[in-house]
Amino acid sequence: MKKTALIIFILFFLLSFYAFATIEHTMSSIFKQLDVTETDLKEHIWSNIAYISFSYPNPKQLLNTSNSERESIVNIVGNFVKSYTKTEEFVSKYKEYIKSRKPEPPQKPESIDDIKSKQKEQIKKSIEEMETNKKKMPADQQAMFDNAIKSIQEQLKEMDNPNNPAYSKDVNNYIQQGYEQEMKDYKDKLAQWEKEYNGKPDELVKKWLTTFLESTSDIDFNAVLKDENGRKIFVNNEFQSKPQIWKLCFRAGKKTTEAARSFAQSWVNELTK
Length: 273
Hints:
The protein is mainly alpha-helical. It contains twelve helices and two strands. The protein has helices at 2-33, 38-50, 59-64, 67-84, 88-100, 112-136, 142-159, 169-196, 202-215, 237-240, 244-252, 254-272; strands spanning 225-228, 231-234. A two-stranded antiparallel ribbon has the order 1-2. The model is unreliable at 1-25 (pLDDT under 50).
């Protein structure tokens, strides 16, 4: 029994290695055919998934391939993307990404007494500096310093006036209320962050795939184009405002798009289980 299990395991391992090697070999050919590097493609994969976008390093090269090749390329590249999202490299990028998007708690505000104390220290320092500068000036110019110093000293005295509204308990309450609202907003954002992101990138990948499926669900492959200023545009103005991925899939053709949508839907189904 153990011997049989070992043989099955070895066969499974060899078949898996063969399949992986075949994909790698095919992807190497596609890199050359589409004039992209593996590094470029991985960067685009990460960027697209992280920011829910659908850019491609060299779309013209993809459109230059024959219709018969595109469906095969879509599935091969799709498997490459799928495999890459399960690598340590991708997961590491994801962890850094969610860390950078984690909300920061608001800084606890100072009390009105602390604020007043700091302001008084600054004013006292200003008075000392003016006293020092006054001594450096000719006697006939020192009077203007006396007036300025007297004015600032009056401001300093007014700060300790218990009826000064700028330092009342009401102001302290407003500061606290503002902080409590900031804390509430922070907790709401943190809860949303925890719901949207976790240790695995599956939900983010699923969101990306779902957005692709939604954006390409209503492509009219019979839409008519016309020439305008040396470029092709849709006769139907409504189509001109469609997302870029919608237009790219239109140009790629129905079979290519159906292959991409089928792959994406199958992947979504796997992630939903």
